[in-house]
């Protein structure tokens, strides 16, 4: 009985443990912070935070409608990742829900539905900037939108139509720079639209005007060597020679270099660079001397300038034939040679490095030869021994060469005793007439002594004069060197001021150009805002007039154009000249309708006239053209002013065009 009860107890315990384990396996909670993104309408990317319990995977539910019953949703199963992508979708919004799968394959609750909207189109590019270096090419830059794009479409047209289908266009990749080439000599309107990742175009930017560039023949830059007529160029051997023909002109001038009348070929000389308007000769040698001419030209003219290049042979560092140390006997001559090898014009000075200087003499014959390359010491004594320096110098610096002289003393001679009696005998013997000095010999002796005295005096006087000349020359040289340093400082200061003035001139020129461009852009934007306006003159004034209906009836009947009241956005009278009928301003629905009306304006009756509503600046430009009396007709059309010449050719003028210069340019 006890055994049976034990078995029943053990079985019950196992059932309880199994039931408790099943309860302990809770289902995972719904994933939190589900985020969806949609770069194109075909793909949705989903991320979420994983539950805090282990999971074996996830099921992604998606539906075009947020239906409560998940059985009617489409779904995909993925592994234990926190990222999923759904592809092959349609162009509509989708609801997304995510459910986690437990280790035993059971699904927990799904997350709340998150809407993946249909992707929006990229916004229009901002800060579109155009530049035009020549009439054939326009360069466009802009700021990219803050959403991913697959590329851009650049629209360009001679006329600013609202309908982009009438514009020419080019497609480019996801860059922020584009160039349009092969254009005509006219102004162009430019617009830019971004493409979404699925290839759809967003809104185009506002039109920006790329004006016709101003053309000019070449002219030297004010601070360039050609402008200042600085034609002589002198460099030391081994330095670089840079010749620059700084030039302005539009189109950009080309340049050709000639040397001594022949076209310069940089391939025949190594270390030569042609960069923009500069010719750079590196490591110049004497053989590079000559006349170098630059010729710059464009289709409107040409200029030339010749540089005269001199290359001076390098004389530094100085190469010297150095003297050798000497050992001589007392009474012999000592000769040192110190010769400059690469600069024959170098100066040479010998200096004895002890308290007794060579120039003061030592009581013995010590000569410096005229060429100073040789130091000759005659009949040297022990006092001549020592340290000597040869100092060689030129314009670039000094070089010192040291040498030593060693003097061996003469051996002492043996002294003999003289017998006084024999000396008396000799004196007696020399008192005879044969021992007396002849008058002629005495005269020769005195003459020689005087000559020696005069020679010594002349030498001493010459040394004193030379010393005084050297002292005066040194003072003058020091003064000249000081003046040269002051002059160089002044030159550097002048260069710095010239550079500052040049920078200021460039800034002023740049500011003037910016102001001109700002005025042009402001005028263009003003004209753009009224481009659909029509100015009506001589339209009779009536009390209680309904201008909209009267305008529609007049256009329908007299111009035979189907216009509805809705096509007229605004119409009102504006102040006019005193005593005259006030003009009427009409703003129509789009540019195409305005062009159609203006083309048929010849059918108007009763003296009524239709004109473009144009800015005051354009009106001033047309007034200047009419007053010049050089044109048959002047008119405005679609943001441009046209003038017809006597020969029938038509020219487009910009606000700041010089009429005479433009006519000369067109004539060329």
Descriptive overview:
The chain has 668 residues and is α+β, with helices and mostly antiparallel strands. The chain has five domains: 25-116, Immunoglobulins (Immunoglobulin-like), CATH 2.60.40; 126-210, Immunoglobulin-like; 216-312, Immunoglobulin-like, CATH 2.60.40.10; 315-410, Immunoglobulins (Immunoglobulin-like, Sandwich), CATH 2.60.40; 528-667, Alpha-Beta Plaits (2-Layer Sandwich), CATH 3.30.70.1820. 26% of the residues lie in helices and 35% in strands. It has eight helices and 42 strands. Strands 3, 4, 6, 7 and 8 form a five-stranded antiparallel sheet that branches. Strand 32 (366-368) and strand 33 form a beta hairpin.
Tell me briefly what this model is.
The chain has 668 residues and is an alpha+beta fold. Helix content is 26%, strand content 35%.
Briefly note the structural class of the backbone.
alpha+beta
CATH class category name of the largest domain? Alpha Beta
Shape: flat
Average pLDDT reading: 80
Number of domains: 5
CATH superfamily of the largest domain: L1 transposable element, RRM domain
What does the main sheet amount to?
5 strands, antiparallel
Uncertain runs with pLDDT below 50, 5 residues or more? 19-24, 356-371, 422-438
Distance between the termini: 130 Å
- The CATH topology of the largest domain is what? Alpha-Beta Plaits
CATH 2nd-level architecture of the largest domain: 2-Layer Sandwich
Percentage of residues in DSSP E strands: 25-35%
Using DSSP, what is the number of strands? 42
Question: How much helical structure, as a percent, in the residues?
Answer: 25-40%
* Number of continuous helical runs: 8
Radius of gyration: 52 Å
């Amino acid at each position: 009985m006890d055994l049976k009860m034990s078995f029943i107890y053990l079985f019950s315990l196992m059932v309880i443990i199994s039931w408790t384990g099943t309860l302990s396996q809770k289902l995972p909670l719904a994933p939190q912070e589900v985020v969806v993104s949609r770069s194109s309408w075909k793909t949705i990317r989903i991320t979420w935070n994983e539950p805090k319990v282990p999971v074996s995977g996830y099921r992604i539910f998606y539906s075009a409608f947020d239906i409560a019953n998940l059985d009617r949703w489409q779904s995909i199963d993925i592994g234990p990742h926190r990222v999923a992508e759904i592809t092959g979708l349609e162009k509509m919004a989708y609801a997304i829900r995510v459910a986690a799968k437990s280790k035993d394959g059971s699904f927990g609750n799904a997350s709340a539905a998150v809407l993946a909207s249909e992707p929006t189109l990229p916004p229009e590019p901002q800060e579109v900037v155009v530049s035009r270096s020549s009439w054939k090419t326009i360069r466009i830059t802009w700021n990219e939108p803050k959403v991913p794009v697959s590329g851009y479409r650049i629209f360009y047209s001679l006329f600013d139509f609202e309908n982009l289908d009438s514009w020419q266009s080019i497609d480019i990749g996801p860059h922020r720079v584009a160039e349009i080439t092969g254009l005509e000599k006219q102004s162009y309107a430019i617009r830019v639209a971004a493409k979404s990742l699925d290839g759809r175009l967003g809104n185009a930017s506002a039109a920006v005007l790329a004006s016709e560039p101003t053309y000019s023949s070449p002219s030297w830059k004010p601070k360039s060597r050609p402008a200042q007529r600085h034609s002589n160029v002198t460099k030391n051997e081994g330095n670089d020679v840079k010749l620059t023909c700084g030039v302005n002109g539009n189109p950009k001038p080309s340049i050709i270099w000639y040397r001594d009348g022949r076209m310069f070929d940089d391939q025949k000389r190594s270390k030569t660079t042609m960069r923009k308007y500069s010719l750079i000769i590196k490591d110049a040698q004497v053989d590079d001397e000559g006349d170098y001419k630059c010729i710059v030209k464009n289709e409107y003219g040409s200029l030339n300038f010749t540089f005269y290049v001199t290359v001076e042979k390098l004389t530094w560092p100085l190469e010297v034939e150095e003297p050798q140390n000497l050992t001589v006997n007392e009474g012999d001559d000592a000769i040192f040679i110190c010769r400059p090898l690469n600069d024959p014009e170098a100066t040479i000075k010998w200096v004895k490095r002890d308290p007794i200087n060579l120039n003061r003499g030592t009581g013995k014959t010590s000569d410096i030869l005229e060429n100073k390359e040789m130091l000759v010491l005659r009949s040297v004594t022990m006092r001549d021994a020592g340290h000597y320096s040869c100092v060689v110098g030129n314009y670039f610096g000094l070089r010192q060469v040291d040498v030593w002289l060693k003097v061996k003393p003469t051996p002492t001679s043996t002294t003999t005793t003289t017998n006084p009696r024999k000396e008396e005998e000799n004196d007696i013997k020399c008192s005879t007439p044969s021992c007396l000095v002849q008058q002629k010999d005495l005269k020769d002796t005195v003459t020689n002594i005087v000559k020696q005295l005069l020679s010594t005096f002349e030498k001493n006087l010459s040394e004193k004069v030379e010393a005084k000349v050297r002292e005066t020359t040194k003072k003058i040289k020091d003064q000249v060197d000081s003046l040269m340093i002051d002059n160089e400082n002044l030159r550097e200061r002048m260069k710095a001021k010239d550079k500052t003035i040049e920078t200021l001139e460039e800034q002023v020129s740049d500011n003037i150009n910016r102001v001109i461009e700002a005025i042009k852009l402001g005028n263009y934007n003003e004209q753009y805002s009224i481009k659909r306006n029509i100015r009506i003159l001589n339209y009779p004034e009536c009390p209680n007039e309904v201008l909209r209906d009267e305008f529609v009836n007049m256009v329908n009947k007299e111009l035979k154009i189907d216009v509805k009241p809705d096509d007229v956005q605004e119409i009102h009278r504006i102040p006019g000249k005193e005593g005259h009928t006030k003009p009427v301003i009409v703003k129509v629905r789009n540019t195409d309708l305005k062009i159609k009306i203006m083309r048929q304006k010849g059918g108007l009756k009763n003296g009524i006239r239709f004109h473009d509503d144009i800015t005051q600046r354009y009106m001033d430009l047309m007034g200047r053209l009419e007053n010049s009396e050089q044109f048959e007709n002047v008119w405005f059309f679609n943001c441009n002013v046209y003038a017809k010449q006597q020969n029938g050719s038509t020219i487009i003028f910009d606000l700041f065009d010089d009429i005479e210069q433009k006519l000369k340019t067109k004539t060329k």
